[in-house]
Specification:
Distance between the termini: 24 Å
CATH topology: Rossmann fold
Strand order of the largest sheet: 1-9-8-7-6-4-5-3-2
Number of helices: 12
CATH superfamily: Alpha/Beta hydrolase fold, catalytic domain
Strand content: 15-25%
Largest sheet: 9 strands, mixed
Helix content: 25-40%
């Protein structure tokens, strides 16, 4: 059976702290990247990849548990997020999951896989899950398994479009770039970041009331308050809108499906997810029965942060069961 469910009956969260681990900076292709590490560098590495608008701080309730269970835990701030650089479209034409996957792969090669292990475990929330899937589709030789919680992509709910002529594609590209360059993100982003609007948007990602969670608010608010946040968001909007079809989740999964030995991938979905509904995860399971799906009750879009005790134990149990034969 590929689908299973957990009931989260205990909402008490033992504090771990957003400033977990030793913090470091790494320069990749001229970009400043922030990353963290906790645990023994000689243990099996796990890399935690945050979602949109978040950072490695968002794994505040997970990293320590994984490290105490015998893993070396890394957290990477993707370019444009957290304490990593927020570049403009002048420095980077666009930001999309292919770009972040390249950053992640280089992180694995340069920093993570320098000891006895040749492969890492990837755990991603939302956008981080898409980046992890993109990475394993490109460089499976570096990755033991992926846990995506959940797996978002607008392409998962769109019907495949008809072939577009080159002229139509050029016009679409021009219109998208014009729209996002004219969109006053320099006004919109600070308005959201410096007002109660950010709490409203955060509320959609959680099933419980998070109005008193000051640490969570700070995790999301601080990067958005930077003067460079709007320009980085513009690069992301352009990049994710104009991605080639082969970079979308449906095509990446099709590529993985064709492999004779399919990678072990676990999808974790909050039953109350209002941003990426559970129906998308169930559809993925029907289309790709080799995937595994874990449903966490009483949890929204961020089960790792909303139901951390169950999330952590489920991940550890799944890793022990599925990776023992390959260790």
């Amino acid at each position: 059976m590929n689908q299973f469910s957990l009931q989260d009956t205990n909402q008490n969260i033992s504090p771990r702290g957003a400033d977990w681990g030793s913090q470091n900076l790494w320069t990749w292709e001229g970009f400043s990247c922030h990353w963290r590490m906790i645990g023994n560098p000689l243990d099996q590495p796990i890399v935690l990849i945050h979602g949109f608008g978040a950072s490695s701080s968002h794994w505040r309730h997970n990293a320590k548990d994984f490290a105490e269970s015998g893993f070396c835990v890394y957290g990477l701030d993707l370019i444009g997020f957290g304490q990593s650089e927020q570049p403009s479209t002048k420095k980077i034409r666009s930001l999309d999951n292919e770009f972040w996957a390249k950053q992640l792969v280089s992180f694995l090669e340069t920093i993570v896989l320098t000891n006895k292990f040749s492969k890492a475990i990837l755990v991603g929330n939302s956008l981080g899950g898409l980046v992890a899937i993109t990475a394993i589709a490109r460089r499976e030789d570096l990755i033991r398994t992926v846990i995506a919680s959940p797996l978002p992509d607008p392409a998962l709910v769109r019907k495949p479009g008809k072939f577009q002529s080159k002229i139509i594609s050029i016009i679409k590209t021009a219109l998208v770039k014009i729209f996002f360059r004219l969109l006053p993100l320099e006004i919109i982003v600070p308005l959201i970041a410096r007002t109660k609007l950010i709490k409203i948007f955060l509320g959609f990602a959680y099933s419980r009331n998070i109005s008193s969670d000051r640490e969570l608010e700070k995790i999301i608010r601080d990067p958005a308050k930077k003067s460079t946040a709007a320009r980085a968001l513009r690069a992301m909007c352009i990049g994710m809108t104009l991605r080639p079809t082969y970079s979308t989740a449906p095509e990446l999964l099709k590529r993985l499906t064709k492999k004779s030995q399919k990678p072990k991938i676990l999808l974790i979905w909050g039953r109350e997810d209002k941003l990426v509904p559970l129906s998308i995860g169930k559809n993925l399971l029907e289309e790709h029965p080799w995937l595994k799906l874990l449903i966490v009750d009483n949890s929204g879009h961020c089960p790792h942060d909303e139901s951390p005790n169950y999330f952590n134990q489920s991940v550890l149990n799944w890793l022990e069961f599925n990776l023992k034969a390959n260790s």
